[in-house]
Every structure is written in structure tokens, then in C-alpha cells.
Amino acid sequence: MARLSWTRRTLLGLTPVAVLALATTGCNRGALDNEVAAEIAYLGLDRAVDRMIKLGFDGFNAADSANIPPQSEAGDESGTMDVSGKVDQGASANKGMQLNVALTDYSDGPVQDTAVLYNGGPIQADFSLKGLPDADLSGSLSGVFTMEGDLAGAIELDLAITGTTQDSGGGVIARVPGSIRVVGTATSDYGVFDVDVSL
To answer: CA–CA separation, 83 vs 78, rounded Å?
Structure first.
């Protein structure tokens, strides 16, 4: 079982010899049934988890009712992420936020020379914010996306997310940079990958 315990920048800079060798022989699904493929299956979504949090807070700050205005953003290479949901209303310093996250032909680019597109959802993210604006954030992201390309099949995320927020000016709530930690598992036909990453 593989384990992810570094920052995104470090991970995306890795180019294991095993992956490079597989890439030159066609990167078919059978050849990639190993721990490296299980890692790559998650890493292709690592930036997406970051983007989901950003779009969630964009919707949180734009909401004037319980419904979050739908938010959408393109992947770095292709496709789109769509985020909708609800947030608790009122003056309380403690709020809940529920997000629905969908991907369409989504890619932030190849990971270690392996190209994957992600589709599906919506999957659900639930967040608790206690002590706004300088809140402790806790939440979860769980559900299944599908992969196609150099990796194929379903990938199931079961992630816990923690961090802190701040007032970034004018009452706009934002996460504290570098405070977000994501732990859990990403399960695919290639194995169960243990996730432990800071955003």
C-alpha cells in the first residue's frame, strides 16, 4: 500500500523509473496494476480537491440564501468542475456547508507522464466551520469518479479535510494558506492509496 505524505509540488515533480518505463510501452491498464498506478490515480485529482475547496468558498461568500450560487472552473488542461450546494444562513459564527462536486472530462494535466480524464459525480463534501471568521474547518469528501485514458475504471474517494479560515478583507472568508490537510483513501482497481497531503 502506497502512502502520500508530501506537498503537491514535491509529488508532481517525481518521475519514478517504473512509471517512465511503463509510459514507453503504452501505459495499458494491465501494465499499471501496481502501487504507482494507485498513487497516480489520486494525484490526478489532487489539484481538483484544492479547486473544490476554492470554489466552495467562492460560493459561500456569494450566497445570499441557503443555496450556494453554482460555481464552475476549467481544469488546467481540459474539462470542467461544477460545484453547487447549501450553507447555513444567519449571524452564527458556526456554520455548515454542503457541496456537490461534478467533473466533466476533467484533467489538470498528465501526472508522471500518465494522462487521465475524470468524469462523474456529483459527489458530496460536507464542512463544519466553527468560530468564523477565524474558524476551525473540518469536513469530508466522499464519492466515486470514473477514469479514462492511461488509467481506467472507478476511483472512490474517502477523505477527511481539516484547516483554518480567516477574513481576507471585506468580510470575505478564505482558508488560511497552507493550513488545509487532507487524509484518507483513494480506492481504484489498482489498489488502495493512503492520502496525507497539505494544501
So the answer is: 17
How do 67-74 and 94-107 pair as beta strands? unpaired
Question: What does the alpha-carbon distance between residue 149 and residue 110 come to, in Å, rounded to a whole number?
Answer: 10
Cell, residue 102: 461534478
Question: H helices of the chain, where?
Answer: 8-12, 17-24, 35-62
What is the per-residue pLDDT across 164-179, written as a single tens digit (0 to 9) for each? 999 999 999 999 999 9
Report DSSP letters for 132-147, one per residue: TTS-EEEEEEEEEEEE
DSSP 91: S
Q: Please state the pTM of the whole predicted model.
A: 0.83
pLDDT at 16 over 90: no
Q: What is the 3-state secondary structure (H, E, C) of 2-25?
A: CEECCCHHHHHCCCCHHHHHHHHC
